[in-house]
């Protein structure tokens, strides 16, 4: 065994709720989201759900070579993706997070490798093209039949980005581990570290789901759902026609004139200086946008709020979920958390403005850059 025991201190139990997905419940008491059906996967799964599906009673990884049965129901093989990422220049999630401790069997998912700057693009973190995404996830061991579970250590932000990307490219068997690594540790589960004689390397032979027999696995094929994205021209049209609500999910200080340099869309609410990770100004917003900081959608324990609470977050901020909407953030990642929250409220495909503020601040005329006056 190369695993270390996780933290044993438990936070208060998450309030119970129900999923809007019609599904077969495996358990009913340990978490609000611990359901699964063979062909449609839930948006959220609990740490307990993952433990029961990924590990046997002795703590060893369960083989994911074929579809497996849980409580008599047939289910798809799993792959667990560690998606830790932070808004920092030259941030190395593999070195800083993955090697420092990850859930056994997890494969590191490098978001930066899929979001590199493109020549001529004004986007800091562009959406990859379908062939790039298809090749990238196939090399990790993902097939058409794989149920992808993704997690991070920071309020689901980067895990939600991975969830969104898989759905964007036509793969609906994808779930976010509710509460991520933090919740996993709080429930006393194990982690693997770089001290485990190389076991932390993202070796495809150890990737759960990557060892599916080539004769039985159907290859992953990326098919772009363009309706889940909005570009700069489409945002201009939305402003002109007022055909959709615009949600800005950055901290409020990003919208407000200030003499000091503060904040971008990060997990804490303050960052210096007031620029994106690639150096672009962060202060200002798209005229008419409704501000809902993405942290409003998560609890202090790092889990997504209940569906009832999520709905109230939208409603109390002035967003009508029965009316079309689009969400943006600083660079296109945090907005995926809002898309996940909307999904839990029954809005399956809330589109994101892929260029977000980083692009808008460079392309839009000054008349279309609004700021709030500092009080």
From TrEMBL:
<dbReference type="InterPro" id="IPR045078">
    <property type="entry name" value="TST/MPST-like"/>
</dbReference>
<dbReference type="InterPro" id="IPR036873">
    <property type="entry name" value="Rhodanese-like_dom_sf"/>
</dbReference>
<dbReference type="InterPro" id="IPR001307">
    <property type="entry name" value="Thiosulphate_STrfase_CS"/>
</dbReference>
<dbReference type="Pfam" id="PF00581">
    <property type="entry name" value="Rhodanese"/>
</dbReference>
<dbReference type="InterPro" id="IPR001763">
    <property type="entry name" value="Rhodanese-like_dom"/>
</dbReference>
<keyword id="KW-0677">Repeat</keyword>
<dbReference type="GO" id="GO:0004792">
    <property type="term" value="F:thiosulfate-cyanide sulfurtransferase activity"/>
</dbReference>
<feature type="domain" description="Rhodanese">
    <location>
        <begin position="74"/>
        <end position="193"/>
    </location>
</feature>
<protein>
    <submittedName>
        <fullName>Sulfurtransferase</fullName>
    </submittedName>
</protein>
<dbReference type="GO" id="GO:0005739">
    <property type="term" value="C:mitochondrion"/>
</dbReference>
<feature type="domain" description="Rhodanese">
    <location>
        <begin position="240"/>
        <end position="369"/>
    </location>
</feature>
<keyword id="KW-0808">Transferase</keyword>
